[in-house]
Design a protein that fits this description.
The chain contains 26 helices and 22 strands. It is an alpha/beta fold.
Length: about 700
């Protein structure tokens, strides 16, 4: 049967079916059409095609209380096909979800009102083109780049298992929720979804259900242009339970598939639903139905096919919202009330655990979480900051029980493994461990960690800095969502040595610093590392990138030089001229700080007064007031030299027009570190030479 024939058959079905379910489904479809038409922007086809699936899931299965949308044990619904946002907005509206503010207080407003839907894709509205976390109550994660929602959902499922292992007790089940995802062909083509699915299958996350809309349409046309694999067989290979539903409009078969998911306890479930995009539209199956408004005439014809008033816009027939809200709330409110009663009894029996859960819900850390953070003595040989980072992490983690993370098969090298007694591994069927093993899957690791952070955990990841390129989408999304995921990056410079240019990051610091809302910290020694971890865990609404070295760095003598606590301001005066204004300011981060200290001491011996500024975090420094920033970088001192084994991009804002940098303008090379430092000018003698020349130029 051709696509048009399928549509025609579907139209006849609509005309003959006047059931309340069909009325609600067609309400979702027409709201999507009207919103996209009014905005003259958006994707009507997928919301129309998936309306029966979304309706069936929400009405009959999703455990969700519209009056308490932040209830901890609610089921999570992730719309990974974020371009189909009108499906989610329609569901939130019909379910009667109530808006809450950032502190969880009710505002007295609807999460998504009809007026909000009328303002779809408009400036300042709660209905942006793709769902945005924190912007719209009921949106569990920001989905736009395809595949990210899939990855986030695995993190949410991991979090449920970890929370259950931590807090559930005999007679008290605080966590047993499920995670549902709607995804599409684009999600399946993006590699991150495959990485994440592989992790989920390995971990046997039976609380996870992906519903795959197999409609064979992408922006360029039929998926046969580039995507002909058997996706179901691929997921069978990942270890998922795969179910096929031949027609997205067959709500009974959709329900049967969801029943099978609920009965499956040994693996995640992948439901392949076959749909016709823009179902019921005269342009069904076309690129227009997928990626833009249908046009006024096509909207009229589609509504007529539904038996809908052709000229009605944003129509919600009497009783539709009440019935839908009644079904969702009737199930969800009862479950939430029972949970709250259980939690009240739990609090009496397990007060310590209840108090810990309270802190998690508030995004706060336990008292004394940093009490065992070590102070490192001065040491000319020192430690690699990856090593001191591991020591600090393992001093903090025992006091922050839901600090959970791991590396992309690099924990022994990044020192991100938790080694204290009882840390354990998060493994299939044993979900109480604290060490995640992500495998060589940086992209999925980042998106999974974000999902964990969206579900009360304090998550962290670890890999080499050069592989931040594989993680940029989840890092960026963590910043957009304002979630405090911690990204640990080691092997931070040409100090990697013999591994060569492929493993020596050059542009990576600049590109991370360019992400709004991301705190990128590159500490100079072990004591700055300790302060960096404290700052990272203190963040509640921004992610952090911690940048650590592979090679040993001297531990700075803090009796001679300033305290490492200056890191909390982003940049601080580490050493200064003994008298008067310095002739030059030497600025550095990370491994280059000890280098400019050596240059500072040599220049002092020559009678040249210099100031050393350690600048581990541009982000934190820019948050300081102008008076503090000017105290570190006096405007009158024009001779400024920045030294960093990375690209120069961005340093001009601190060295100014008259300043200079010793940075990298090429990729690195494969050689012992000492040879590389000499080749690229990262030596005390070269820093002193450039400093003298700069003083000479700026003093004229």
């Amino acid at each position: 049967m051709s696509e048009q024939a399928e549509v025609d058959a579907g139209v006849d079905t609509v005309r003959e079916d006047g059931s309340p379910d069909r009325l609600a489904i067609d309400t979702i479809r027409t709201l999507a059409m009207d919103a996209v038409e009014k905005a003259n922007s958006g994707h009507p086809g997928t919301p129309m095609a998936l309306a029966p699936v979304g309706y069936t899931l929400w009405r009959n299965y999703l455990r969700y209380d519209p009056a308490t949308p932040d209830w901890p044990n609610r089921d999570r619904f992730v719309l990974s096909v974020g371009h189909a946002s009108m499906l989610l907005y329609a569901l939130l509206h019909l379910a009667g979800v109530e808006e809450i503010d950032a502190d969880g207080r009710k505002t007295g407003k609807e999460a998504v009102s009809l007026d909000d839907i009328r303002q779809f894709r408009q400036l300042g509205s709660k209905t942006p083109g793709h769902p945005e976390y924190r912007m719209t109550t009921g949106v569990e994660t920001t989905t736009g780049p395809l595949g990210q929602g899939c990855g986030n959902s695995v993190g949410m499922a991991v979090a449920e298992r970890a929370l259950a292992a931590r807090f559930n007790r005999d007679g008290f089940t605080l966590f047993d929720h499920d995670v549902y995802v709607l995804c599409g062909d684009g999600d399946m083509m993006e590699g991150v979804s495959g990485e994440a699915a592989s992790v989920a299958g390995h971990l046997a996350l039976s609380n996870l259900c992906w519903i795959y809309d197999s409609n064979h349409i992408s922006i360029e046309g039929s998926t046969e242009l580039a995507f002909t694999e058997d996706v179901g067989k691929r997921f069978e290979g990942y270890g998922w339970n795969v179910i096929h539903v031949d027609d997205a409009n067959d709500t009974a078969k959709v329900a049967a598939a969801l029943d099978t998911f609920k009965a499956t306890d040994d693996r995640p479930t992948f439901i392949v639903v076959h749909s016709v995009i823009g179902w019921g539209s005269p342009r069904a199956g076309s690129e227009k139905a997928h990626g833009e408004a249908l046009g006024e005439e096509n909207v009229r014809k589609t509504k007529e096919a539904y038996g809908w008033p052709a000229d009605a816009q944003f129509l919600v027939p009497d009783g539709v919202a009440q019935a839908f809200n009644g079904a969702v709330a009737g199930r969800g409110a009862a479950a939430r009330e029972a949970w709250e009663a259980d939690f009240a009894r739990y609090r009496e029996t397990f007060p310590t655990e209840a108090a810990e859960l309270d802190l998690l819900r508030q995004g706060k850390l336990p008292d004394g979480w940093d009490k065992d953070v070590p102070t490192f003595p001065a040491d000319a040989k020192g430690l690699a900051t990856r090593d001191s980072g591991g020591k600090v992490l393992n001093a903090i983690a025992p006091h922050v029980p839901m600090l959970i993370g791991g590396a992309a098969d690099l924990a022994p090298s990044t020192k991100t493994n938790l080694t204290f007694q009882g840390a354990g591994a998060f493994e299939p069927g044993s979900y109480g461990g604290r060490n995640m093993h992500f495998g060589v899957r940086e992209h999925a690791m980042g998106s999974i960690a974000n999902g964990m952070a969206l579900s009360y955990l304090r998550s962290y990841t670890g890999t080499f800095l050069v592989f931040a390129d594989y993680m940029r989408p989840p890092i960026r999304l963590a910043a957009i969502m304002e979630v405090p995921t911690i990204f640990v990056f080691t092997h931070d410079s040409i100090g990697v040595g013999e591994d060569g240019p492929t493993h020596q990051p050059i542009e990576h610091l600049a590109t991370l610093r360019a992400i709004p809302g991301l705190d990128t910290i590159r500490p100079a020694d072990a004591n700055e590392v300790a302060e960096a971890w404290k700052v990272a865990l203190s963040h509640t609404s921004e992610p952090t990138a911690l940048i650590f070295s592979r090679q040993a760095l001297p531990t700075i003598d803090r009796e001679t030089y300033a305290a490492a606590s200056g890191l909390e301001k982003g940049a601080y005066i580490l050493a200064d001229a003994q008298e008067g204004e310095p002739a030059i300011i030497l600025i550095a981060t990370g491994s280059e700080v000890s280098l400019v200290i050596a240059a500072h001491e040599q220049l002092a011996g020559e009678g040249i007064a210099s100031r050393v500024v350690s600048m581990p975090s541009w982000y934190l420094f820019e948050k300081q007031d102008a008076a503090y920033r000017d105290s570190v970088f006096p405007p009158a001192v024009k001779a400024r030299l920045a030294v960093e084994q990375a690209g120069s991009l961005g340093w001009d804002r601190y060295v100014g027009h008259d300043g200079a940098t010793i940075t990298m303008s090429t990729f690195g090379a494969s050689a012992p570190i000492a040879k590389l430092q000499e080749k690229f000018g990262f030596t005390r003698d070269n820093v002193c030479k450039v400093a003298r020349d700069l003083i000479g130029k700026t003093s004229k």
